[in-house]
Amino acid sequence: MKETGAVFFIFGATGDLARRKLFPAIYSLFCEGKLSERFAVIGLARRPRTNEQFREDVYQSIDQFARHKASKEDEEWQNFASHFEYMPLDITNVDAFLELKKTAERVEGQFGIAGNRLFYLALAPELFGSVAHHLRDGGLLETRGWHRLVIEKPFGYDLPSAENLNTEIRKVFNEEDIYRIDHYLGKEMVQNIEVVRFANAFFEPLWNNKYIANIQITLSETVGVEERGGYYDNAGALRDMAQNHMLQMVTMMAMEPPSRLHPEDIRDEKVKVLRSLRLYESPEDVRAHVIRGQYAEGEVKGELKPAYRAEDSVNPESKTETYVAAKVLVDNFRWAGVPFYVRTGKRMPVKSTEVVVEFKSMPDNVYLAKKGKLQPNLLVFRVNPMEGIYIKINAKEPGSEGTILPVAMDFCQSNQVGLNTPEAYERLLFDAARGDSTYFTRWDEVASAWQFVDRIAAAWSQNDSDLQLYPAGSWGPEAADKLLEEDGFHWWPVNGQAESDVVWKSGRQS
Ligand SMILES: NC(=O)C1=CN([C@@H]2O[C@H](COP(=O)(O)OP(=O)(O)OC[C@H]3O[C@@H](n4cnc5c(N)ncnc54)[C@H](OP(=O)(O)O)[C@@H]3O)[C@@H](O)[C@H]2O)C=CC1
Ligand SMILES: O=C1O[C@H](COP(=O)(O)O)[C@@H](O)[C@H](O)[C@H]1O
Fold first, then answer.
1. Of the residues 233, 245, 347, 495, which should be mutated to test ligand 2's pocket, given the most ligand atoms within 8 Å of the CB?
2. How many angstroms separate the CA atoms of 263 and 124, rounded?
3. Model pTM?
4. Taking a C-beta distance cutoff of 8 angstroms, is the pair 203, 357 a contact?
5. pLDDT, tens digit, for every residue of 202-244?
6. Domain limits at 136?
7. Do 262 and 121 fall within a single domain?
8. 138 and 244, same structural domain?
């Protein structure tokens, strides 16, 4: 990409995603020398903007959200900004795409770009299909370089709508040129799961139902629906987080080692996991294994927050879930009998993404006869906000006669490797531009995930009496705790909460 350059077409350039994630990501790539001088960004949306106004918008977004700071006076900033152009365009109007073609050719001439084009759809999903057709009909796919389509989630509303969307897009783009974003796959520690699993002799041999009791995945957020009430009230936590991010994290934890580090080999292994998910058989089965909740008024970090139903653009009688927890089973040789407990919710007490692997306890042995608390070993991937790995083991209490204490080995990547690791969108944009689709979801993954989720949605649509309200700032409905208690487990605290039993941290005795 660096040699031949590329034009990034950002559809939805005046929107929230572009402002918070995409412009800052492009700026970081620029600052780190990952873009050559041969790049240009064409921002596209309906509202009028001059190039100067657009560059000011980009500056503000970088000032607020980028990890590299910019100064308007700096030559570097001015150089960067000169690569940005804006063109007002209504996606529903095919003639506008003929105009866009001319703009693209002019910009490519100006920066010496050889015809590579990356079309990023930061748009409402209902517009995805028509953009693909209009790109073709407007002649934007006629250059000699590559043409890639980056699509935001959600990819469809259910399996049939996802199939329709896919059919439309595939009329124009080949599967290998479609990059379906799941930004969790761009997170450093999610990518690290593979490495920790497959590059460490003391994990891989234990990574199966003989040694692992359960796996817990938590994606908790303190925010509510913010300005996205209209979208969210239709989607809910199941479609917004579980169908994509949550199930993708299950695949990273459960997949077999790929035969080669090739995108298709890795995605082949991930899709096998999705196909092995046990589908809930009936509405009763769903009710027994999937818990849904919706936040009511409550305090988060000492601040009173309104109920979900009082949020902007949300139906005041909405039955949409803002929390979902489930017991998921992966029916294959490695994972038979190991529950994956997953949960995600808005307005939780902390923002945290964590994966906890709980190992089976040692059989009754001489140490159990001693006074102490033998706890299961835990391996924790801390994805967000701090990045790191935490391992909990049992050890002798110093100075005692064999009393056992749980101790922690805590590798905090943010402290030890350095803060400021690339944001997910930086990695994913860079990968899309260089043609690496490893951390994008292939169509068969999307389809299998919908197949699993559709059973839940269908059961929920029949009867909503199981929707439980939870106060904002709590950990969600109690039924989610019972889900684990019935199996003799409990949720492990996230973000290092309740670590009073930990005596060693970062390898030092405290
Ligand atoms: N925001 C986020 O945090 C996340 C967003 N996403 C996904 O990213 C996508 C974009 O989300 P977000 O940025 O929040 O949405 P916004 O509503 O903030 O932005 C939508 C953009 O689309 C443009 N647009 C709407 N209709 C048209 C049209 N007919 N022709 C041209 N442009 C149009 C709007 O500009 P204008 O009105 O000027 O035309 C605006 O720039 C969605 O698919 C969303 O699900 C995914 C994960 C997180
Ligand atoms: O895709 C989405 O993700 C965000 C949470 O992302 P994170 O990187 O901050 O953990 C969520 O708020 C949003 O509802 C959802 O659409």
1. 245
2. 28
3. 0.94
4. no
5. 899 999 999 999 999 999 999 999 989 999 999 999 999 999 9
6. 6-152
7. no
8. no
